[in-house]
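Most newcomers find our protein records easier to grasp once they have seen one. Read left to right, the backbone structure tokens trace the chain's path through space. Once this layout is familiar, the rest of the handout is easier to follow. The record below serves as our worked example for the rest of this section:


***
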Amino acid sequence: MKILITYVSAGAGHKKIAESIAGYLKKYCPEQQILLTDALEYSAPWLRQAYTSTYDFMVRRAIWLWRFCFWITDLKLLRPISKLTIFLSHRISTRGFAEFVLKEQPDIVISTHFLPSEIVSYLKKTKKLKSRLITVITDYGVHYFWIHASTDTYAVGSQITKELLIKKGIKENRVIITGLPVEEKFMNMPTRQEACRKLGINPEMFTILIITGSFGIGPIEEITKALKGQAQILAVCAKNNSLFQSLKKKNYAHVNVYGFINNVEELMAASDLIITKPGGSTISEILITALAPIFIAPIPGQESENIKVLAKYGIGIKPRNMQDLKRIVFEYESNPQKLASVKERILKIRHANAALELCNVICESSIRPGS
């Protein structure tokens, strides 16, 4: 069986989840032929620019414009017009990707972004392709762009996400709750003591992880300054070298500063709280590790919707300002039961074997590690 796993490299989440699915299938289902590809590699240069550089510019420099675009394209009254406009532009710019899919003729297409889902759905509708299409919705809210008539199955991260799809007209039997897959290293987390020993930090101190993704954007420096002295802090600057150098020079006591890392699971295992942006893949990692989150600097639209969904489960807080953030941290630090209550709520909704659940759906058989 040939399985095409496809994503779009706009933000890191779509790619991370696609890679997690591919890695799991390759390891535990080696008899399957797995293809992993970025749909933008086969698309027009201007579309690649729009989905990478333009997206990055908007969420960094013109957030008001992103908020407006997200809102107006999901507005019920304008959905037919906005969706037709996007479809026509994609038809012109993604011919290369459509040709690639038709050449490969996969048995199953797994898409972690609405763009390849749209193209594959159209190919199925026009009888050019017979593949089974599984769309993995990588956020917890649902924008209308995710919905395409020829999608066979929607895999989602929560019951509320499923209910949102049903409200938008999708039949219940086409939606499955699997959770969102994470890298396998999150399935084998070290203990707090092990993680702290490896990181060289104090396991007895209340510890806060501050991380906002690969670009290190958001008020990391301001938050670190506000919370220093209140707790042990792990500040991840990622690729933001100027932020890294600035925090290093300050040399705050009990503040550990990191650049780009590949051991985030160890930092999460060592922490009591995480202050982060509410991206879909980040939330999935938080749920797997049962780490209480405080959400900052959400991208209007998908990340704001993620906060709303998690809030319905009693998980995650978005501070109004820095003073509110300090208050929330103090309440968690001084009240261990409050922290424990959040973890209990997380354990009730998390899918500890999301990749396994999704693979069972993909292969329509009971797959077990090592089989």
Remarks:
- The chain has two domains: 2-179+353-363, 184-349.
- The longest helix spans residues 45-61.
- The radius of gyration is 21 Å.
- The chain is about 50% helix and 15% strand.
